[in-house]
Write a structure and sequence with these properties.
Elements: H1 3-26, E1 30-33, E2 36-39, E3 57-61, E4 66-69, H2 75-88, E5 93-97, H3 103-106, E6 118-122, H4 125-144, E7 158-160, E8 163-167, E9 172-177, E10 187-191, E11 196-204, H5 215-225, E12 232-237, H6 246-268, H7 272-278, H8 290-305
Parallel strand pairs: 4-5, 5-6, 6-7, 11-12
Antiparallel strand pairs: 1-2, 2-3, 3-4, 8-9, 9-10, 10-11
Helix pairs in contact: 5-6, 6-8, 7-8
This protein binds zinc ion.
The site of zinc ion (ZN) has 5 residues, from loops.
Protein name: Beta-lactamase
Keywords: Signal
Family: Belongs to the metallo-beta-lactamase superfamily. Class-B beta-lactamase family.
Length: about 300
């Protein structure tokens, strides 16, 4: 072997090594509690580079079957999640739970259509998807191009109003619907066996909370969630190892200040534009994606609180 051919071989080996590492980390899941596996989404908006893989999604394995909790932003991501499940267990998927209507949590559903699973969501999810689905799909195709191919809305076949229990065999999941908060169709999943609470987008860590429902309702929900004392929590966005309850307290503080400052602006007679320009400007360094969502949050809070008596 000449020096140059040796070098070429070394470069080739190094490339293979990095490609392998990349393939392995492309759709990683980690077991954050016994039987609870989470894939950590990118802390970003959907882009062609991240393929819409921006939410934390995952699954829980029982003795009889598997429950999926959110399926990701595209059919392709749903298929990756399904492959990750198959790498862990041959058990069938019996439930595909959507924590709420947003595109980054639902558009992988199609990957589980031939599993004979029940699709599970809030009693308010079907109507929300019917109202917004076409727009979501158009936006997805515009933002992601070919990466969105085949993605579709798969509405729930089993809806929850209040609470419900799902049996995975030796493992019971308790589902809860909540007051309108992040959206009007938020649902949480609690795995009693491991004390793991999957909060969907009722919890944002590091990434700015997005108000697409009610800031007042969200604050009420947070007060109740804090009493649940989970051993592990899974946020819809952000790191999986953030300290509890500090993580939800940071979100609570942001929302409480948003409500307080918007109420004060309304009381002063500020216009919505004036409120957008002044409220929460000191929060900018505290949250990822502040520039994308904060002004929308002020607008949403203003529209909600304007009618408060
Ligand atoms: Zn969401």
């Amino acid at each position: 072997m000449t020096v140059s051919s040796m070098l070429r071989a070394l470069v080739f080996l190094a490339l293979c090594g990095s490609m392998k590492a990349h393939a392995a980390s492309a759709f990683a899941v980690q077991q954050i509690a016994p039987g609870n596996y989470v894939h950590r989404g990118h802390d970003d908006v959907a882009t062609p580079a991240n393929g819409g893989d921006i939410a934390n999604v995952g699954f829980i394995v029982g003795a009889r079957c598997v429950a999926v909790i959110d399926t990701g932003g595209t059919l392709a991501e749903g298929r990756q999640l399904r492959a990750a499940i198959r790498a862990v267990t041959p058990l069938p998927v019996c439930y595909v739970i959507n924590t709420h209507m947003h595109p980054d949590h639902i558009f992988g559903n199609g990957a589980f259509k031939d599993e004979h699973a029940q699709f599970v969501g809030s009693v308010k999810l079907p109507q929300a998807e019917a109202a917004r689905g076409d727009n979501y799909l158009r936006a997805l195709n515009r933002e992601l191009g070919a990466a969105a191919d085949g993605s579709e809305i798969v509405p729930p076949t089993l809806t929850v109003d209040g609470s419900a229990s799902l049996d995975l065999g030796g493992r019971t999941l308790t589902l809860h619907t909540w007051k309108t908060a992040h959206t009007n169709n938020d649902i949480t999943v609690y795995d009693e066996k491991s004390g793991t609470l999957w909060l969907g987008d009722l919890l944002f860590v590091g990434c700015i909370p997005v108000v697409d429902g009610s800031v007042v309702g969200w604050l009420d929900d947070i007060a109740r969630i804090k009493q649940m004392n989970p051993r592990h929590v899974v946020p819809g966005h952000g790191p999986l190892d953030a300290p509890w309850p500090q993580s939800i307290e940071a979100e609570e503080q942001y929302l409480a200040e948003l409500a307080r400052d918007v109420r004060a602006a309304i009381k002063r007679g500020d216009t919505i534009q004036q409120a957008v320009n002044t409220v929460g400007v000191d929060q900018r360094d505290k949250w990822l994606l502040y520039d994308v969502y904060h002004r929308r949050n002020v607008t949403a809070a203003y529209a909600e609180l304007e009618w408060e008596k």
